[in-house]
Amino acid sequence: MKTGTSLAALLCVLGATEAFLGRVSFLPGIRNLPTDTPVARKHGPGIFMSTLKSPVPDTAQTQHAQAPTSLHVRDSKRVYLFNEGRKEDKALLGGKGANLAEMSNIGLPVPPGFIISTATCLQYFDSEPNLPSGLVEEYMTAIKIIEAQTGKEFGNPENPLLFSVRSGAAISMPGMLDTVLSLGMNDEVAAALARKSGNPRWVYDTYRRFLQMFSNVVLGMKMEVFDDLLVAYKASKEYRSDTDMQATDWEEMVRRYKEVTTVPADPHEQLQLAIRAVFSSWMTPRAIKYRQYNDIPETLGTGVTVQSMVFGNMGEDSGTGVAFTRNPSTGENVHFGEYLQNACGEDVVAGIRTPEDLTGLKAQNPQLYEELLRVFDLLEKHYRDMQDIEFTVEKGKLYVLQCRSGKRTAKAAVTMAVEMVEEGLISKEEALLRIDAKQMDFFLHPTIDPSAAKTVVAKGLPASPGVGTGVLCFTSDEAEVLAKEGQDVLLVRKETTAEDVHGMKSAKGVLTQHGGMTSHAAVVARGMGAPCVSGCHEIEVDNAKETLTLLRSGRVLHKGDTLTIDGSTGEVMEGKVALIRSTSDADFQKVLDWADELRRLRVKANADTPDDARKARELGAEGIGLSRTEHMFFGPARIDVVREMILANDKAERLKSLEKLFVFQKEDMREIFSVMSGFPVTFRLLDPPLHEFLPSEPKDIAALAGRIGKDATLVANKIKALEEVNPMLGLRGCRLGLAFPEISEMQVRAVIHAALEAKAQGYDPRPEIMIPLVSVAKELEVASALVHATAGQVLEEKKAVLEYKVGTMLELPRACLNARSLAPMMEFASFGTNDLTQSTFGFSRDDIGGFLPRYLEEKILEKDPFATIDVEGVGQLMRVAVEGVRGAEGGDDKALGVCGEQGGDPKSVQFCEELGLNSVSCSPFRVPIARLAAAQAAILHKKAHK
Amino acid sequence: MKTGTSLAALLCVLGATEAFLGRVSFLPGIRNLPTDTPVARKHGPGIFMSTLKSPVPDTAQTQHAQAPTSLHVRDSKRVYLFNEGRKEDKALLGGKGANLAEMSNIGLPVPPGFIISTATCLQYFDSEPNLPSGLVEEYMTAIKIIEAQTGKEFGNPENPLLFSVRSGAAISMPGMLDTVLSLGMNDEVAAALARKSGNPRWVYDTYRRFLQMFSNVVLGMKMEVFDDLLVAYKASKEYRSDTDMQATDWEEMVRRYKEVTTVPADPHEQLQLAIRAVFSSWMTPRAIKYRQYNDIPETLGTGVTVQSMVFGNMGEDSGTGVAFTRNPSTGENVHFGEYLQNACGEDVVAGIRTPEDLTGLKAQNPQLYEELLRVFDLLEKHYRDMQDIEFTVEKGKLYVLQCRSGKRTAKAAVTMAVEMVEEGLISKEEALLRIDAKQMDFFLHPTIDPSAAKTVVAKGLPASPGVGTGVLCFTSDEAEVLAKEGQDVLLVRKETTAEDVHGMKSAKGVLTQHGGMTSHAAVVARGMGAPCVSGCHEIEVDNAKETLTLLRSGRVLHKGDTLTIDGSTGEVMEGKVALIRSTSDADFQKVLDWADELRRLRVKANADTPDDARKARELGAEGIGLSRTEHMFFGPARIDVVREMILANDKAERLKSLEKLFVFQKEDMREIFSVMSGFPVTFRLLDPPLHEFLPSEPKDIAALAGRIGKDATLVANKIKALEEVNPMLGLRGCRLGLAFPEISEMQVRAVIHAALEAKAQGYDPRPEIMIPLVSVAKELEVASALVHATAGQVLEEKKAVLEYKVGTMLELPRACLNARSLAPMMEFASFGTNDLTQSTFGFSRDDIGGFLPRYLEEKILEKDPFATIDVEGVGQLMRVAVEGVRGAEGGDDKALGVCGEQGGDPKSVQFCEELGLNSVSCSPFRVPIARLAAAQAAILHKKAHK
């Protein structure tokens, strides 16, 4: 990244802005300090590394050295200085405390502080409302040490030491007290600070914030009480924003705040109250409920972290900055940062002044710059990853306030991972674990240029990744026509059906008002690799008028207007948005090669056509885990034959149509076998209800009747008769094959003939035939017998030998529960996690638009179970099924896989690894992600079982 | 039963005809014999009782006495005479053999025979194709004894002994060799028999049947080969039926049969081949598959039963008869039988001659009649139940060929059970177990008079028991009008919807073309106790033309034609059929009182209205397990308010409509509480998708829009928007309550207000509020919090105290799997086995008409899972859920029940008992059945765990 790009923009790209803003806006200009202390002055800024290696009296250091792993010997000790802990001490010190301790110990200049242990929290509930006896004395000893280190004094207005107080359990837990900043503040302290800093405005702003925060989190008052006072004051002054407020205004606010609250002036009393509030927050109803819900033991307790603060705006030799140890955008091994002299975080965020890159700092203070570089190096070596660092310089002395593994773009993640392996910093396994598999969409689809301007006008579900721009078009026929004329088209529908497939193929993207992540539109689009945003309830589509209303603004768009959709985020944007594309990135290929070395799970693709199959091979699929034979039924030349077959008056008529379909189907299959030579190809027998293939509009029905030479009324009646109340639970899957065995026979004949022809052409076909929607063992018995009989007959006719396998889908709870009884009739099985999720939850994927968004928003569900396997419910059934199959005779030889949409979801892939499945199968464009996720899962599994 | 009723008609009523015909038509005139033997002659017919008490040499008798229970000491023994076994020896002798042995041993005159043990079968597979060494010698010894007993000789044409040979494993198993009759037949034997009997016609008929049967089951030839020969012969002779065939014709057939088969003439060779065939039949693919499917161990093996035969048409002192020890129709303790002199079974069945009742036999042969009475007495005392006996008299000597517990009508079953308890013959427990709970419909609904003529014109699903006759009517509005005019109406619909409820109420019965056992029509009809036949695919309903086409005949019926439906059998009959009714039968009441004493499960009713509730109390329900609050929404005064509420533009408008509904709902609830005072009443919050309440026809929509003062197009659009692809899996149940909390709030307020009012009136209301369709713990958390908050608010307002419970439905796989996490938020739970069956199988109850009938017919499913709980699938989930709830804190105090339709099904009730549930709930008219079934389940459970 070149200097032209601002840090704020970069943070924005990385999604970090909110956290940054959230934190610093509460603490403008103040950073945990020591300032001008005798110790600091004695050693000078240049030697802080050695200083900080042993900044506390030997006693504490020795104690830690003596008992580095055993916490028991420290049981009677309740207060820990930072350098008395390590990051492994989370149970004792809480997550926050342990991390601060770690930073201190590896030599980072962290403002000193102490932690009251989590065990003390439990003691508190015996002594409540008093603190456990002796605790105050104990932490006062720690405060004395910190006073000595900082040269300041807690409660002394002439040289005040201010603290932040935070809760922190071993497991991060919302619902507990978070933070009180600037504790130790009172009128005298504020006056002295205002004098010393020469910046009374932020002192009083900080003071009033302290009062509000303390009143809220410690005293339980509402934030609104204070907000209302401020609003009223600004109104009276006709101020438009906080920036209009001057030092005297904030001082006045402090006065007004103090009228409504009872924050004690005594810093010691403040501290005691804050510590008690942190402990008490462990037992609020919200925290208790959260623990119950997440199975967190009550006996963990919370720790209390008390840390001194630093100031970044103490003059020209002070400042504040943010840096990344490598470029988080490109991954280049070049540090990247920004610095603002005599400033605090608020100034950076508010954009009032523009920060410079670190060359400015280098020029001003080369020694400090060198120190910073040493910090970068130290941090990368210690954490073995690129770090995101916040630092403050106070009167020439550097303080690190936070360091964490830095967020990065997909490109940077991959480049860094590859380079760090090549530098010998990390292993391949670690490198792979560092990469967020979900981000890898970046390498597979053009993405929005992060620096481009965009206006989001609506948001729907991120149904199929990729970005698509085009003119709005409301029918599939027209989409096809316009596309042929060379236009970029965006197909907009209430929802799509089988009749829209040609339109979807022609369009640059698909936008639907209804339907979830696994609606027809979503599934078909993912299969095609076409961008799709589905379930976009912020638009209203009127098919008749060919308009799209943006509900946020009420604006009505018409045919021919241009929109852009991002299928990775669900965003709908105005006009055309600039894109970037990263194809065949060498680092990415390297990562995938490593993934292939390290994974155990076989990765296949869901592919229905020869084109899909080719794409799947290119992207590394090792076979086809699901080929939906019915998808070969679409296309203008075929669909009418399918309809003729469905509407046949009797079996003889149906057989005639099936014979025509046989030719199409066999040819597609032969080509798929040739593309997938040497790899297994699983054809699933016809699954959807027949009604799905038929038109519904009277004029379409009449036209169809004309084409196939039947009476329109009879055809309409027959279509009506095939209607079902809940087609998802009706005559489909193997039920269809049992009702019309001739359809299954045709499909099996096509598979076997196709394989024999491919073989004759020198390919190595590996056919597998899969029977869908089995719930009862007898269904599989009858259906598999039909497959074997038909295949056997073809092979006998042709006097040929061919290996083929017969298996089933595990996609209904009953099948999973009784997998053991299905096992004898199957050579393989595939979890259809879409259908299994539907039936386990009782959620129709076509109708979840009505409640799923609310469920996710209100956290009734943590995740969309159609995107990520629901381990607690669906996962239990899968586990029972795996045990059932593996426990049956020869069960270990029966390949088990997943072919629902979740097969390309990293979390789900990890669960498949845990279950010991043999493969996952997903849409072709997700294959690279699944390959990476499979490797990550294998590495994690190995780690966990070492 | 009086003498006027024929035995054939009676058997027909009892469903026994088919078995009877099936057996005797294969063996016309021949019954296992001895005939004119020295032994028989010496003792004479009068003394057979003592003779048969010790009919075999002492050695065998002694051996049995020495080792009555241990089979090990008999391991080396392979051939058992009948009196060497007992009915407990099924594992050793097979079921058939053991029963024949039992009959011999209790002193019944059974034609002698022997059994080759099941263990020998396994030896055979080592010696195959030869019989195990020494076996022939061993069974020849047994044959010698039988020859001595019968005075006949196997293979001797002058005095031939004929055998039947049957397979028989410990568990009855289709797919194995069944029976070869008249083995020992050949040309010489036939000639001698023809001479001796003076009836060459049946001798040669028997001979040709033997040839055909032997060729088929032993030699593996097709039956058709022989049938074709017979057809061709009859055609050449211009015979119309077998009765035209004379002795010489059958002799000719024997000649022709022998030309195509290779049945050996040597009886000993015949026997060896037949025994080998029985053993081999154990290992046919069909038998192996059956065993795998039913978990029957292969090591059981099959036994071979070889029995001598008797003849009923040896002259005037011979004959054949059937008798019941009590009247199987009324239950009266008076024997009932029929006898035909000098005849065989075929004559009885063919109806050529009319059998007389036993007074004829009494007159002809008083001594033999007395013997028969002693047999009746002996059998009843031994089996402690009414027996159905087949007997043959050969030359004055009585032989019992079969005895079994007799089939009986519902009335007879109850009367016999009560009388036998009062006679001291059986205990109350045994009495209850004897009664088929399903048959008890007889006491609750008028039933078809068994003696009435009826013409069945179509058959559908037996959706709601009872018989209804009426004129066909195709709309609910017209049904209501005609009913008010005093006509009996039969409502005929393609399927019913919420809009048909008033028509269903007015009709004497409901007949639908579509829909399963749990379709709207079925569920609502059962709730009303109205007869219903649903899913009748043998009719085609045309609503527009108001016609019903009988597809069997193609006949078209019109409005006003009369049909009768039987909702217990699914039969649709022409015109009006005569009915009988058994109300408040004293014996039945006694049985129910005993059941109440002995059952553990509480029996509640599913009741939605005060009328339902009253009916439920009358029939003994101890509370309401499911009150579907939405059913209170129907009715002309209410449905429009409901629609207004659904179509409201905003929450304010919706609240206004809800306020009106509150009044209706509260009043219904108050009345239900008063009827059910002292018993728990469970109200389920609104469950169905809102779309179900709305009209679908444009003219109805327009009318509605007018009534509620809204724009018709807007209303139509809103209705369209509420449409779902799979409403069963859509926005319903708790999802609805979470989307529109104000609806749940209104319902909860209504429950609490109603309970308080009922309490003020002196009743004892016990409200329970149930949250439907939960799949995720958080749903229940939010929904139950809303119930508690609303209830608490009402109680606070009213300053009242009221106990109420909150619970949930367990009706989705995910809820069952995670019941433990739901437990903290529920005080009770009810399995909704309808929905649970739907989701576990992936079967929509609305659409199963398309495949369930075929599934049941082809035995893909053994039972309709919507009628009887599927223990292997749904039952597993229920078990997991019970364990989950019971394992949670306080889990034992949380009442668990079933409220799906299966709650009234005896087998399902038994499963509920096994699971340790607290209650079952079913439609009011099934309550007595459930009470009886619950008692039976408790008795069986006690027995099994003793």
Automatic annotation (TrEMBL), chains A, B:
Instruction: List ligand-binding residues for Mg(2+).
Output: 811, 835
Any Pfam family hit: PPDK_N
- Which reaction is catalysed here? pyruvate + phosphate + ATP = phosphoenolpyruvate + AMP + diphosphate + H(+)
Q: Which cofactor does it need?
A: Mg(2+)
Gene source species: Nannochloropsis salina CCMP1776
The lineage's top-level taxon is Eukaryota
Q: What protein name is recorded for this chain?
A: Pyruvate, phosphate dikinase
Keyword entries, A-Z: ATP-binding, Kinase, Magnesium, Metal-binding, Nucleotide-binding, Signal, Transferase
Looking up Gene3D superfamilies in the UniProt record yields: 1.20.80.30, ATP-grasp fold, A domain, ATP-grasp fold, B domain, Phosphoenolpyruvate-binding domains, Phosphohistidine domain, Pyruvate Phosphate Dikinase, domain 2
Q: Which NCBIfam families match?
A: PRK05878.1, pyru_phos_dikin
As for family, the record states: Belongs to the PEP-utilizing enzyme family.
EC numbers, comma separated:
2.7.9.1
Domain annotation PEP-utilising enzyme C-terminal: ranges: 586-937
| Segment forming the signal sequence | 1-19
| Residue span(s) of domain Pyruvate phosphate dikinase AMP/ATP-binding | 91-127, 133-361, 370-423
Q: Where do the annotations place substrate binding? A: 628, 684, 811, 832-835
Q: Which PANTHER family match?
A: PHOSPHOENOLPYRUVATE DIKINASE-RELATED, PYRUVATE, PHOSPHATE DIKINASE 1, CHLOROPLASTIC
Q: Which GO terms describe its molecular function?
A: ATP binding; kinase activity; metal ion binding; pyruvate, phosphate dikinase activity
Q: InterPro entries this protein is in?
A: ATP_grasp_subdomain_1, PEP-util_enz_mobile_dom, PEP_util_AS, PEP_util_C, Phosphohistidine_dom_sf, PPDK_AMP/ATP-bd, Pyruvate_phosphate_dikinase, Pyrv/PenolPyrv_kinase-like_dom
Q: Which residues form the active site?
A: 520, 899
Q: Which residues form the PEP-utilising enzyme mobile domain?
A: 488-570
